[in-house]
Design a protein that fits this description.
The protein is 23% helix and 29% strand. The structure holds S-adenosylmethionine. S-adenosylmethionine (SAM) binds next to helix 3. This is tRNA methyltransferase.
Length: 252
């Protein structure tokens, strides 16, 4: 681990801390850690607090970054990001146009998928959310493959072409006229919307553009976690019941 790098410290309870490796003390309820002790050590190394409690230092992944980063608006949940990426076949090297960036969570999932040869161009209309997304994308280390624009995508798309368009904003139908010009044949238009009436309104507007796309698909993703205990394995009593509807259109 190098000085200035971010690492994930995990304690015996599984509690996680995202910290910068530097020569300073870090206070926890299990005691004080000297973060400078991590410099030059490999990931997986253990350090002890002044009370003798052990922490393991791991390389943070994007889920750790997203869990710990500053939030502006509500983020797209990993279960929904996963299905967006899988169903649209988003791949390394792709160019994806996104809006709105919001807190940057979906941007980070997309940037992680397109890789260093790909690009994510993300529009965010609000300056305060643009700043939050910018910081979070930097924190994830993806600034070079993401172009963030403080712009309203309803006014148009600057880019001439894209492999996919992924939207998490109130009126995705406003982007359809630009999408038919910009999307490559075979690419996907994906719209994430929390409410059913948004899906309905979208499909009313879509009728005008239906000849440009294959038959649409709308999904909702439910993930049920289980408790695994010595005497009993069963579904958890609570679950995340609803996040959003995801509409997929494939360009002809
Ligand atoms: N997907 C984001 C994430 O995972 O962090 C969250 C997006 S948030 C729910 C919706 C965002 O869309 C807001 O930040 C809002 O300002 C932005 N937005 C709404 N209309 C927009 C537009 N016409 N152009 C660009 N951004 C827009």
């Amino acid at each position: 681990m190098k000085e200035g790098e971010r690492v994930l410290l995990v304690d015996k309870r599984g509690k996680r801390y995202l910290v910068k490796v530097e020569d300073r003390e870090f206070h926890t309820d299990l005691g004080i850690l000297k973060l400078g002790e991590l410099i030059g050590k490999p990931y997986g190394s253990r350090i002890e607090t002044h009370k003798g409690e052990t922490f393991v230092a791991l390389k943070p992944d994007i889920n750790d970054i997203i869990a710990k980063m500053k939030r502006g608006p509500q983020i797209v949940h990993p279960k929904d990001a996963g299905i967006i990426i899988a169903y649209a076949g988003i791949s390394p090297g792709d160019t994806v146009i996104e809006a709105g960036a919001g807190s940057g969570a979906l941007t980070i999932f997309l940037a992680n998928t397109v890789g260093p040869q790909g690009r994510v161009i993300s529009y965010e209309v609000r300056k305060d959310f643009y700043e939050i997304a910018k910081r979070n994308i930097e924190l994830a280390g993806f600034s070079e493959r993401v172009t963030l624009k403080n712009k309203n995508i309803y006014d148009g798309i600057d880019e001439e072409s894209a492999d996919h368009i992924v939207l998490d904003l109130p009126q995705p139908e406003n982007v359809l006229p630009y999408a038919v010009e910009v999307l490559r044949p075979g690419g996907y238009f994906v719209a994430y919307t929390p409410c059913m009436n948004q899906v309905h309104r979208f499909f009313q507007a879509f009728q005008e553009y239906r000849d440009h796309f294959m038959r649409p698909r709308v999904v909702e993703v439910l993930v049920r976690e289980h408790e695994v205990k010595k005497e009993c394995m069963r579904p958890k009593t609570t679950m995340l019941a609803h996040t959003g509807y995801i509409t997929f259109l494939r360009k002809l």
